[in-house]
Amino acid sequence: MQRLELVHQWLAGLFPGRPLTIAPASAxxxxxxxxxxxxxxxxxxxxxxxxxxxxxxxxxxxxxxLLHGAGVHAPEILAQDxxxxxxxxxxxxxxxxxxxxxxxxxxxxxxxxxxxxxKWQLASRPDALPPYDEALLRRELGLFPEWYxxxxxxxxxxxxxxxxxxxxxxxxLRNLLAQPCVFxxxxxxxxxxxxxxxxxxxxxxxxxxxGPISYDVISLFRDAFLGWEEERIxxxxxxxxxxxxxxxxxxxxxxxxxYRNLEWMGLQRHLKVLGIFARLNYRDGKPKxxxxxxxxxxxxxxxxxxxxxxxxxxxxxxxxxxxAPQVGYTF
Length: 331
Hints:
Structural class: alpha+beta
Radius of gyration: 21 Å
Number of helices: 12
CATH superfamily of the largest domain: Aminoglycoside phosphotransferase (APH), C-terminal lobe
Strand order of the largest sheet: 1-2-3-5-4
CATH architecture of the largest domain: Alpha-Beta Complex
Distance between the termini: 46 Å
Largest sheet: 5 strands, antiparallel
CATH topology of the largest domain: Aminoglycoside 3'-phosphotransferase, Chain: A, domain 2
């Protein structure tokens, strides 16, 4: 049975005899798809279609409960069929931060996003989510040489280049594993935040973990699809740091230390994303993400050239850039 037919059948059982229409709402880099179900009274719901051979709905259900418990606006789960990979969710609307943000409203929208993030982090406890531990961080870092360098650029790292990268990775890991841990959404960025009455609505949280406190902050400001001047990023980071300190979250007492940790956490994420975007193209047949790789190379270069312990990575980027294919726009 085709998945869309299955969705129709499931909804017919949930709403027998009630007229409704189904239209695509969104899709993401995974196998999940989302449909908006509209009723004749003007109301709507969202169906998440997650084929169980590829996706597991249970983490989504669990994290949704944690978000609601923290007072964060996430979709309510109105019905579920976990065996068939179907969830019926409340509809948080169709306006994502990425579509609404501009120079005039960014301060207000990010203020709401940071308020929600602090609520989420305050609810943290170590036994509720998988740990963002060294093994996971290392696996993510391994995506960069495997998929971006070897597959996308077409040349595996030479022995001395591999040694330089491993040295930087070890330096990064020491910093990240020393950071205080909280709940981590893991993709807290404008594409996954919705503009709504109880702002923001938070989506795409099924991969949440318990890990470094800086992760979601840097994800919000150094995003795949939007870029901001560093002056604004520093200003927003200060605002978060002040909110977090007032709330009693375990951020560093000195903002300079916090901002360094923020940037180093971002570097791990951006190396990972370069690997993921290449993998999406070559393994999964989803080429559109490659157009955004130059933005991430820019993020990596920005941090690697700022801190002396990361200088070997900056030199490696110089060597890699000589053979980088020109995709989307240049470095």
